[in-house]
Structure to design on (318 residues):
C-alpha cells in the first residue's frame, strides 16, 4: 500500500486552485494538507468545492510560514511576482519539498524544470522545482512543435481565451458586461507567453491574444510559413505520429471548437489547412485554460515527480 503524500495549495481561491482541489480529491496517492486563501480563511473547503468531502478549512498562511507546514508538495497558484518569499522560505527550511509554480515567475529560470510533459518529459531528472507553462503557451507549443524543423520564419499565433484566464481580480478582461458581444484584444506584442514560447522553442514567435465572452477555453490559430511545400495529408500524418502516444492530445481533422474542449483535460489539434504553393500551413489548437492550461498540467508534473502514473486522477476520454 502506497503511503499518501501531502499537498498544500497557496492561492486556492482562484479558478485554477478550485480545479486542483478537484484533482487532488480524486487522487489515490495525494491528500490535501492545507489550502490558503485570505478571502476564504476559516470557511470549509467542502462548502466551496463539491469534489472535496473532508473538514479542511481555508487558511490565511503567511508566505514565510508555508515551509513550516511540512507538505510534501506545495503548489503556488498565485499572480505573477508573488512567489519569491515562499520559494526562499522553502529553499531554506525544506528544500526537498516539491514546488510547482503556476505563475510565470520561474519559466525563464534554467534552475527550474519547465513542465510541458508532451515536449519536455524527457528533460525531467528529479528536479524539485517545477515551473508550469502558461495556458496560451501550452497551446502554442503543441501546435507548432511538430513543424519546428520546417519553419521558414516566425509563427504568427492568434489566440482567443475565455475570461477565466484573467483570474478573479476584477479587470476589464473579466468584466462580463464589457465582454458582452465583444472580442477584446490586449498585449498584442511582447506578451509574456510570446516570450515564453520563443524561449522554449528557440525560435521567435508572434502572438496576438484576445478575450471573448465565454468563461473557459482557448482557441489558438497558428500561421506557419515553411521552407518546403507540404500537403495536408503529410501534415496530419506528422501530427498523428508525433502525438500517437499522448493520451491528452487528440489530432482531429476539422478545426476544433472551444465549446467542445471546455471542462475536458486534453488538447485538440486540427483544422490543418495548406495554402496554394504548399508553404503556408494553418493549424488550430484548443484546450481548457484552467485544466490542461493549468491544473491538469500541474497534476501531470506532480505525478511524474513523485513516480505515480502520470495520469493519476486525470480523466482521459477514449
Amino acid at each position: 500500500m502506497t503511503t499518501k503524500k501531502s499537498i498544500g495549495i497557496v492561492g486556492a481561491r482562484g479558478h485554477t486552485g478550485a480545479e486542483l482541489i478537484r484533482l487532488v480529491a480524486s487522487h489515490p496517492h495525494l491528500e490535501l494538507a492545507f489550502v490558503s486563501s485570505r478571502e476564504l480563511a476559516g470557511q470549509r473547503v467542502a462548502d466551496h468545492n463539491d469534489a472535496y468531502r473532508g473538514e479542511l478549512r481555508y487558511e490565511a498562511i503567511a508566505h514565510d510560514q508555508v515551509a513550516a507546514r511540512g507538505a510534501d508538495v506545495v503548489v503556488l497558484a498565485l499572480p505573477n511576482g508573488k512567489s519569491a518569499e515562499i520559494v526562499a522560505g522553502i529553499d531554506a527550511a525544506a528544500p526537498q519539498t516539491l514546488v510547482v509554480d503556476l505563475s510565470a515567475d520561474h519559466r525563464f529560470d534554467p534552475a527550474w524544470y519547465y513542465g510541458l510533459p508532451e515536449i519536455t518529459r524527457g528533460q525531467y531528472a528529479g528536479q524539485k522545482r517545477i515551473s508550469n507553462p502558461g495556458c496560451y503557451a501550452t497551446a502554442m507549443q503543441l501546435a507548432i512543435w511538430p513543424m519546428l524543423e520546417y519553419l521558414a520564419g516566425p509563427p504568427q499565433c492568434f489566440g482567443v481565451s475565455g475570461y477565466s484566464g484573467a483570474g478573479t481580480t476584477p479587470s476589464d478582461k473579466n468584466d462580463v458586461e464589457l465582454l458582452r458581444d465583444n472580442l477584446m484584444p490586449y498585449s498584442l506584442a511582447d506578451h509574456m507567453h510570446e516570450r515564453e514560447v520563443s524561449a522554449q522553442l528557440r525560435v521567435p514567435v508572434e502572438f496576438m491574444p484576445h478575450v471573448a465572452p465565454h468563461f473557459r477555453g482557448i482557441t489558438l490559430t497558428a500561421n506557419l510559413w515553411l521552407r518546403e511545400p507540404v500537403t495536408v495529408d503529410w501534415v496530419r500524418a506528422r501530427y498523428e505520429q508525433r502525438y500517437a502516444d499522448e493520451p491528452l492530445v487528440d489530432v482531429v481533422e476539422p478545426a476544433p471548437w472551444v465549446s467542445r474542449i471546455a471542462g475536458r483535460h486534453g488538447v485538440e489539434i486540427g483544422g490543418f489547412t495548406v495554402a496554394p504553393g504548399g508553404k503556408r500551413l494553418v493549424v488550430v489548437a484548443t484546450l481548457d485554460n484552467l485544466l490542461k492550461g493549468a491544473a491538469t498540467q500541474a497534476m501531470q508534473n506532480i505525478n511524474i515527480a513523485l513516480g505515480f502514473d502520470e495520469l493519476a486522477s486525470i480523466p482521459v476520454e477514449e
In short: The first helix runs from residue 15 to 25. The longest strand covers residues 218-225. The CA atoms of residues 185 and 210 lie 4 Å apart.
